[in-house]
Amino acid sequence: MQDAPASYQHDFHRRWGHLRRARVRALAWLLDSPDLLDAAAPHWQGRIASTGSVTPEVARWLAGLDHDPAPLDAALGARVYTRLGLYAEKLMAFYFQQQGRLVAHGLQIRANRNDTVGEFDFLLDAGPDALEHIEFATKFYLLQGEAGQEFDALVGPNLADSLGAKMRKIFGRQLELGAHPAAQPLLPRPVTAARALVKGWLFYPSGSWPAMSGITAGHCRGFWCALGELGTLGADAFMVLPKLQWLAPFRSVQDVAVMNAAQLHAALEAQFETNAAPVLVAVVRAAPGLVEEVERGFIVPNDWRARAEARSAKENMRNIVW
């Protein structure tokens, strides 16, 4: 686990190391990280949105927000966020609102009182007679099996979904919401464009990765390994990343719990006895007054690979039936 000059963590710390507040760093990551999906790939039919490059004006705005986070804190409110996707969505809503582009956020569409058709993540100003619908997702997927299976081989750590299933849902249903009859009375202007904005990290066994069509070449990436393979990582300073710290590479000038490989193994072995959910950890560089992420990866229970293969076989059979 070397801190290669080309690593995303290295570049993020260099570019945003002056930001101290976790919420502002998370927002900087959402705006500045590579989009997970390649907007230029023919596979996506021109329906992938991109955050683009952060302008000097936005960089200065982020620095100011780090100095005085009151507007962001007010927007997020006093609630304790437990869902990472909702937290990321609220951060993006704040950004779009501050940029003067946000028309609606989380607008639910119902056919009747008991039938929810869908929800617009974001409706953005696209001119005096137009709206743009942005469907937003922040995802973390592990490559299990062969890359030739394309996006179905990228599965969630809890095996509840895959990148393929997620994108079929977004393209087949969510991006069509603007044309639904039930949406028309609630739209102040017609939806003239609908695109998906997808951020996240992909994780690969042994930290190696194949090129995959449709995935941005410079996407955020990490490793995954079974608990029994922890000793092969060649690292000895780890910390478990809390859920709301999954977005931006971790950096803290305060004391945090850092474990060596033996301590991490013991802690996760005990945890996996009652909770089989994979755990995201950071390989860190620890020095007095600074703990900084070098690399990250999921540690999974030793039977996770077998469970993932069983899930893949079940999904393949389901696709054959359909």
Instruction: Provide the domain count.
Output: 1
Biggest sheet architecture? 10 strands, mixed
Number of strands: 10
What fraction, in percent, of the residue positions are helical? 25-40%
Spans with pLDDT under 50 lasting ≥5 residues? 1-5
Number of helical segments? 8
Termini separation comes to 43 Å
Describe the 3D structure.
There is one protein chain. With about 325 residues, the protein is α/β, with parallel strands linked by helices. It has one domain (about 10-320). Helices cover about 30% and strands about 25% of the residues. The chain is built from 8 helices and 10 strands. Strands 1, 2, 3, 4, 5, 6, 7, 8, 9 and 10 form a 10-stranded mixed beta sheet that branches. The longest helix is centred in the last third of the chain and has 18 residues, at about 305-320. It is globular and about 60 Å long.
Protein topology:
Blueprint (H helix, E strand, L loop, with lengths): L7 H9 L5 H11 L23 H12 L2 H7 L7 H15 L3 E11 L2 E11 L5 E13 L10 E2 L7 H10 L18 E15 L14 E7 L11 E3 L10 E2 L8 H12 L6 E9 L2 E11 L3 H18 L1
Parallel strand pairs: 3-5, 5-6, 6-10
Antiparallel strand pairs: 1-2, 2-3, 3-4, 7-9, 8-10, 9-10
Helix pairs in contact: 2-3, 2-5
